[in-house]
Structures are given as structure tokens and as C-alpha cells.
Sequence to fold (1333 residues):
Amino acid sequence: MRRLKTRPFPYYVGLHSLEELVTREHRVCVMNILGSESRKVTPVSHEYSGGNIVAGVQYGRRGVLETKIGDIPVYRSIREVMEKGITFDMGVVYIPPLGVCKAVSELVTHNEALKRIVIVTEKVPARDSRNIRALCQEAGVDVIGANCLGMANAWDRVRIGGSLGGDHPAETLVKGSIAIHSNSGNFTTTMAEYLRTAGFGISTAVSSGKDVYIHFALPEFLYAAQNDPRTKAVVIYVEPGGYYEKTALDWIKDRTFGFTKPIIACVTGRWKKNITRACGHAGALSGSGDDAEAKERWFDEYFGVDVFDPKTCNVSKRGVRVSSIQYIPDAVRAVYEKIDEKPDFATTGDLSLKLWLSDTMMKLPEGLTLPLVRAQSPYDQQIVEVNKQVGAHYLRQGMADKSGASRMNRETQVSELHGMSVLDLSRYTLEENLYFSLAKVMPEKADIPTLNLILNLFMKIDERRMELIDVARANGCTPNAYLASQIALVGDKDLLAKSRGHARFIIDLIREFGLDELTKVFPPELDDFVVKHLLGSEPSRKTDVSDLLFKEVKKSRKSCVALKVCQHIIDLAETRGLEIRDTYEFLLATIAVCVLWNPMLEKRISRQLVEDSVTYFYLMSRIVAYSVVDRANNPLWKKLVDQKLSNLNHSFTENAFKVLFGREPEPAELVEFQALLGLTITNGPGTLSAKGAKESVSARNDISMAFVGFLANTGRAHGGNGYDAIDYLMEQFQGVVLPDPGNPDHGVDLKKMATKAAKAYGSYKRQMREVEEGAVKPVPCVNHPVFRGNQINVDPREQFVAGVLKEKGVYNAFWEFYHLLVHALYEEGVTKNVFCVNVDAVLAVITLKLVWKDLQAGRITLRQVQDLAFTLFLFGRSVGVAAEIADHRDRGLDMDCRTPESDLTFVL
Amino acid sequence: MQLSGLRYGSKLLQLVEFPVADFIDGSATNQEIQQFLEKHRKLVVKPAFYGGVGKKGKAGLVRIVSTLQEALQAKRELFFAQHTYGNKTVTANGVTMEAFIPSDLEVYFSISSSSEYRGPVFTITPWGGVDIEDLPPEKKAVVEIDPFIGINAFEITNALTDTGCPEAFISALVQHLPKLWDLYDGYGLTTIELNPIRVVRKGNHVRPVACDVKASFDQDNPAWKRIGLPDALFQTETTAFEADINELRTYQGQSDVLEMNPRGSILPFMFGGGANSAGTETLGEAAIFSSDFGGNPPYEKIYEISRIVFEHWYDQADMLLLIGGKANNTDIYVTFKGVFDALRDHVAKAGWKPLYVVIGRGGPNVVKGMFYAKDILDRLRLPYKMFGHDTSMILTLEHARKIDKWWGAEGADAYRKQIETQVRA
Fold:
């Protein structure tokens, strides 16, 4: 085979000294520059290296990659880069593996000035790797990688290729006298870091990669290190597989090239001889003669001393082998003493066990205990700062049409909130579901009375506000409209803003002073801090409500750190004769933090959500309180909203029922009511209601306005449409004597009614077809695009709720009618098979059942039934929307719901 | 990914029309075996293994039979034969009965990647049928291959001439051997070894016949999938755990695992190839698996990896260990968030158990990541120790190993009691 050769090698090597390998003078072009890894790494390299990246290629795209020191232009191909007159001599390849060989070919073909290529990509096929070798040998181009992190020159502060030294290369890549060659990219940085700690900097570091073929391997590296005046010793990290090291040592021995500098070699991977498949590095799979033991032997023979023992520090002038990288600093020190050289700078520490963080729960036995150690700078400061942070953090991103809260499960076709289906949610109360929508877990039993207390408390309204709603009703507003008008006025009122501030204060206090449930003694500094920032001599506004909360908080025995802190603050205020500023808001915040503390600590929810939680509770309560349909005839509502402290301990669900229906619920009705609310909680982020809320968040509105966004995006077609089914049922049941639709012994022949309805519909259908093809109005809540096609079809969601209610002994005549109807439609030949009764029917039949008696007695009008049906939907959906709003506030970006101009269409 | 033997090796060789010895497999009826015997006089009976298994001859697992009775006896003995090579013991999955081919010459031929030549090479000797390592240098030839040209006929001629091959056989070998490069290059092979190739003379006609094949495939090169080998062939190489994790495999790596000791006590999340090598070596048998989750895996991927890990090993493990050097590119916060979210969710599902957590890591957002872990572990009441990159990775591993031993022996039980008492209180 004929090919280029550069003496003393039987192949091409394009450098004489390591100094030349990577310098500030080199100009770089990065392939796939806008890929996910390069987009992050390249700007750091560019800034560290003084702006040596002159262009990037992103197939099919033009643009720029922004960096702090200027944009890097991005072109569609290497040819285009060359046509622009940009010159470069280094190529960096981030292309996915199967395209790497082609990218190398492109670089070599179009750029005759090319000197080196760094291939960062992992999992390049061996076939492509050998082709790359052949191609580049012929063209006289050095290749570093693949599967590597490139190379760095600490003297010139330049790195090319991957991310050696991480995000802050100057921190680790300190100028010095050691050259590093490592099969592991991570270890290149880690060894540089270890050396820095011990007082040694680096000249040049090369992450060689550890694929089957190492293109820039030890022989040429040692040759170049020998010729590098900056380098006094070489540190290498070697894994099993390949004869590169043997070749290098043989060539030194037979004087193919001269090498006089010491080597500190770490060989690992003895265990790898037992495996038949690569794990980690693809090339670290040895044959019979190139396993770790063989490599250890090659080096030991070369050094003439045994493996490094930190006790004896026996080394030779040629160097020493170490059994693990932790011994590298000691071994280098010993070798430097041997060759009469000094470390590059003073040591900054050692590698001994330094415990940064530890639990306080379990004491380790003697011999295993370690003291907590202050981390090196800047990590010590970070520990102090991050300790204050608590709760989940999310990556901010465009959240239009995305949600981290809800989704439709494609398999079951059932919507889910935080991974729980609406079917399951329909078994829980409104207060439990509201808590769940925020906390992502159901509340602990002990927290439910607290939730009810706070939700019921916020139902206390100024009745004069209802006059506005009266006007809205008189003007024909639908419930969403008049509720929106009220909620919009909430804004971020003092009560909410101050509660948020207090919640923040409580959380800060807990984290700052490292408090937890087991804290028994509060430090005096905490007291001083609280006195300074929270207490004062000015008397705080006191009301019956704040007194009630005060007592509740004081007497509570719940094991919760927030509560403990609050109780301590109350005691402190009393002892010092001081007042807590904005006591009411402080107590509200305490309660909110307390009930949400555990989910926050479990990183289920963000700190922001906990701080905002009083707002969510407040808004939900207000929606319920303002929803009364006929307040003049609803004495229960009056009691709920007046300023007296009654009804506070009742279930919020029960109170919501009272607001809507003006009477105490029967146990069965309460079950139906909560099932109905549960089912409407969410239908995924694509629904208009969720989108309205999300778009409002995207415009950076207050939470109250985001609720307005939700309400504004509901209407007669979304939320109010359940009335169609009620209307249909009322038509069918007109004139029928049905005193109690919940009594199975109602004596009405439902089957006969269903047959009659089916015949009537059949005749309507035929008639309509004769008049106009395809304009047939379907029977509401029958059939479903997914649950169809069988002889007998069932909507599993409807079936599930029916099962739950049946279990509880709840009967519904309208529901039975619906089931009989779908069979009758089939028997009368109107449908091809038995259609399913879909889940929307559940909403209609339950609503109708709940209002039936009042309707029959004339206590409620049809319009009010319509409003009730709509309001029921709004109650349920408010819960799901609260989750969407919180999610979008946590993850989204300003204006992320905006549609780009390019996606818009002008229609004539 | 390897295969050995003619059962599937023949399929490979047929792709390039390389002659292969006739064979029947263990499902042949007595009548078929008898007919096969009548045609070839002698049969070579070998156990059939999935994957690449060598040294069968040395282990006494190859029988030459000449009667039906002997064939059936060999079939009985070898059908489920166990074979230990290296530290691995495998069980046969049937037998192959190959036509015994009398010949004057046995050739060894292989193509492999050479780190000495930094490219592909073929190795050839007319003194085949033995271990190639046992032959003196003058009896074998190693020749570089230009990957853009393949194997030249003259290179085979020269190599055979140099190693003492009788002239009469060279021409036939030159005709067939270069085809193997097409197989090697076109179907994602990293090694192919034919040993022996028996050269058969029939009158004036000389023909090489492959009597055994060993091949390894490059799992990073999808070309091997075109061969249409049955999935089961490579499945035995992976455990259920590995198979689940492999589902997540992409070109970015980030999810390499190798099950080491299913009875081990430590779940080691290793980040980076170096940590993988050093960690696996230091932890020894305590490690349930060896892994490399480095390369900045996104949250969804590391969560999924962790979910699978806990799904398979939470019950078995005493310790969760996260180990790596000072990361260059990997966002520690993102990876820790994935691991500990998955742990939290798994504990919620599977119930609490005393699991000790040790972390040794550096890199971007390391403090934020550690606090993320800390908060969840505090809440889960799981004890932990966290070390930064200013501690030697090996010391962390050794310390973890010591805690693990104490934890397994007494610590975990004591801690369980302590927690139970607290819960009761």
C-alpha cells in the first residue's frame, strides 16, 4: 500500500511538537455547529480561545451561533464556507455517527489547507473510522478522536473540539509542565484537576478517544511531547484494547524516536478481560494480548520499577505506573523530585475524602465517620446559596401546545392530570382535587380540614359585588362572562401579594437556618432576624377571621417545619410584646406553606407555586362563591358568604353544592356531584379553556387574569354544550311523571320511551336525508370516534363512572334511558350497531338529575338549568386550569404562545 | 455481538458465495442423518451455541462420527453441552452435523482491525486448524488492507507463497478469499475468522470449503441487520435488564450498561468511560452492573434509565452510588434530577427500604444537583454522603464500598428500626 509517511513514523503525522498541536493561530470550522451539544460547548471554546472559530456548518441552514465575543457565522456546507473566502485549518465534527465519514470527506475535499480534524461524535462505525484514517492519511490531515473531547493548550488558553475543562476551562486548564494523553475525555479534565490541586499545571491535553482506532495515539503524542519545550513529563490514562502503547514503548526502546521525559501511566480495566461486549468505550475490549494486565506489564518493564506505592514513592527517571488516577499527583511529585524539577505552583489542597453534604439521620460507625468539610471556592459559596433554594426547577421553554400537567392518554383515550386519569379523579372531592392539581399528590388526611378551612374562608365576600353579576345576567351574560368580570377585579390584591411575600419569608427562614421537623431549639440569630424583618410595635389589623386562624395555628400539633416556625414566631412576638406585621396574611401563608411543604421538598412542585398557593385557593373559592344562580332564594349561600365564621369546617365540595343547588346534598348527590366535577377537570392542554389560561400566562398576566383567560375561552360551544343533552332529555321526558329520578322504582316504562325516541329519530333522519344529504343532527352524547365499530360499543370512561356510582348504590333514570336508547336505535335499524353512550352523557344525566326536582316544582327556570350545567363544568375545569397555569408559570417563557408570522395564513 | 459455527455462519458466507461444508442440524431425523452419513461417510458433530464461542475443539466438544449410532450418541451428549471459556459458561442449543471433508490443506484466514497498522488486516496461514497464536511468525502472514480497494489477489498469493503454501492450492484460494472483504466491509463486521478452510481436490478441480466460522459485528454499524440473522442469536448476550436499557440506546451513548453481578449490593450510576473503568474495577462483585451514563443525557432519558434500573434492582440493592469525575459537558443538575425523581417515584410505588446513597461528582451545576438529591433524600429519609470533585474518585468508591459492607451487615437493619420507631412516635 502506498501512502504518505513522515519520519520517523511509517504513516503520516503532521506535527513535530505538542506546541503546534493546538494554538491560538489555528482557525476552526465546526460541523453541525447548531447541534444540541455543539450549541452549548462551542461558544465556551470560542470565548476561551480568543475567538478562533471562524465558521460553522449546519446542513441546509444559514445563520449565526451567538457567543459573548461575537457571532459565529453558520453556512450550509463547507463549500459555501470556502466560497465566502473564509480560511481555516482545523475541522471539528459533531455530526451524528453515520454522517461523520462523509463530513470528514467534505472537509478534506474542499479545504486543502486543512491540518487537523477533531471528531467528537461517539459510536462512529469501525468501518467509517478506517475509511477516515485512509482518507486523512492520504490527504495529510491529523485526526483526533472519534469519541473524544478534543485537545487543549493551557499556555495559549485555547481548546479545540470538545468540552475539556467544562464550562469554565480556565479553572482547570492551568498553565504548567505536564502533557496529558487520555483514553477518557472525562479523566482528561479530572486528571488536570487533580494535578492542579497538587501544584502541577498542563502544557497540552489530548483526549484521544477510545474507539477501536485511535488516530492520534501514544507514539506520535510522545514524539511531539519530547519536542515540546514546555512539557517536562507526560501523564497518560490507558484502557485495555489495542497495541498503541506497546508500539510507542517499543519505538522508544529501538530508538525509532528519542524520548527522555518521564511518563506517569495509569492503566485500568483488568475486569474488562471478562467481558465480551463493550461498555463505555467501544475500543476498550481486549483480545488475548492487549488486556489491562498486558499493558501494565509493558509499562512496568519500560519503567523498571513496580507499580507506584504512595508509601514508598519509588519511581524511576523514566516514570512509573499508577494503579488509579488518585495517585497521579503523588507519583508526579515523586518523579519530579527524581528528575530534580519543581512543581509548577503551590499546592491548593489534596484529594482526601472531603464530605460536602451528609444526612443527619444515621450515624456511621467509628472508622467510617467523616466531618463535613467546607468545599473549595467557588463551590462553598454555591452551597450556601443553593441551600436556600427549594422545590422543583424546570427548564424554561416554549410551552404553547405543551403541558407538564395534563395530557390525553392515547391508549385509553382518557385525559390525565399529573398522571392520574380523570376517572380516578372523579372519586375525590373538589378540595382534594384542587390540592392535587397544585401539589401533584393527594393531600394527607390531616390536611383536608385545613384545606376546607382556607377555601371556605375565602368564600366570605362582600355581597354588594353580586350587583355587578346581576347586571351581567340581565345583559344575557353566560356564567363564564360574569365570573370573569369578578375574577378580573381580583388582580394581585394586597391580601395575595402579602401572603406571597410571607410565604417567601417563611421558606427563606427555614432554609437559611437549616430548620426541619426535628428542630427543637431556634438559634438566637433567627430570633433577631425575625424581630428585624417581621415583627413590629404597630398594632396589626385584627379580625374574627385572623383570630380564628391564629388559634388554629397555635393549637395545631401537626409535625410540619413551617408550622413550627410560625408557632415559634408567635411565641417570640408575645414574649417581646411585639406584633406580627400583616398577621392574617402571615397565617394564611403559614398554612399554605405547611400543606404544600412536603411536595415541595420532594421536588414535585416549585417554590413559586407554594408562594402563589394562597392565590389559587382564593380564586377557586371566589369562583364558587360568585356562581350562585338564584341568590335571592338561596339562604345557604347567604350563610356561606357572610362574615360570620360558620360553615368553615364543612367540606368545600358540600358548600359548592349548596351554592349551586340551594339545598343540603343527599349523600348520593354528593358522590354524583364530585364525580361530575372530577370528569371535567381536564381534557388536555389543547382545549380552548387550557389554551386561554396558558396564553394569558404567556402574556405575563397575574394568576387571576390567567383564570379570566380560561373563562373567556369557554362558551356555548365549550362548557355550555352539555346543555344540548339536557335539552334533549327534557324533551323526551316532557309530560312524564317522574318524581325522583334517583329512585329505581319510578314506575316509568323507560324502554318504551327509548323505542319511541329511537323511532322518532329514525324518521327524522330519513326525512332530513331526503331534504339535504348529511345535515342530520346526531343524538347528543351517543357514539364516539374511537369507541365504535363493534357490535356493541362502550365508552370505558362512561362505564367506569357508572360502575363507581353503582357501587355506591346510586341510580339515575336518565342514564338508564340513555342506555336503552342506544339499544333501541340499533333495534329500530337507525344505527348499524349499538352505539356507545359517551362520557358527555354522564355530565348531562347527573346535572339533570340534580336539578330535576326543582325544575319540576318550578323553583328553577330553564335558563338557570343552562347556567348550572355550564357552571358545573367551570368548577371542574377551574381545578385543571389551576394546574395548567402553575405549570406554564413554572416552565413557560414570555410570549411563548404567540404564533410566528410564518405560520399564519391570510384567507380571501 | 458475535456468532460462531456453521448454523448461522453459513448464511453469512452464502452472501458472498463462499463455499461452506454441508451440514444438517439437530432437528434432522434418523433417516436424514443416515442419508447424510451415506453421502459424506463421516460427520463432524459440534454443539451449537448462540453468540461467539470458541475453543470447542480443545474442550472436547467436537466429535467425528461414522455411524448413525455414534452420531445419535454425540447428539445426545452435545445437545445441551456446557462450555466454559474465560469466565463465561454457556449452554448449547442443539448441534450441527457437518460433512467431514478430507483435505490435504487446512487454511486459517481472518480479517480484523489492527491497532498496530491502524487499519484492517488479513491474517493467513496454510497451517490452519490450530490456534493462530501458537504458530511461529514465518508460518503466518499479516497483511494490511486498503479499505478503499479491499483484498488484492496478489496480496493473497504473496502471503501464501511466503508462508509455504503448496502452489497447487493458491489459485483456488485467491479466487475465493478476496470475497470475504466484501462481506466484512459491507455487512458491519469487525472480525471474521474461518478456521479451518479445508481445500478439497476433486480431480483437477480444487475448492476451498469453510468448515467453521466466527464473526463479530459492530453494534454501531447497522449494516449487519441486512443479513437477516434471527434476533435470538444475539439475545442470549443480553440480560433482561440490559435489553430494557438498550431500548434507549442512541448514537449519543448515555445508556451503556453491562450486568455484572445480579446478587451484588450496589447500584452504580457511572458517568463517563473512565469512571466506568475505574468504578467497575474498584467496586468488584459489589456492583450489580457496570454503566456509562455520561455524555450529558437529557432529563427524559436519565429518568427513564433510572426508572428501569430501580424497576430491576431496587429490591436487591443496598446502596445507590453516583460516581464520575469533574464533568466537562454533562449537566449534573439535570442528571441528578432524573435519577432522584425516578427514585422518589419508585419509592412511592414500591415502598420504602433502607437504601444508602453515596455521590462523588463534579461538573456544571454540581451543587445544585447535590441539593436536589439532598432534598429528596431528606424527604424519603434515606441516608447519604456526597463528595465533590476535590475528593479522589477512587477514594469515594472505596469509602462507598466500606459503607456498603457495614450497611449490608448491620447498618440497614438498625436504620430500619430507627425509622420505624420514629414513625410510630
Observations:
- The radius of gyration of chain B is 27 Å.
- Chain B has a mean pLDDT of 88.
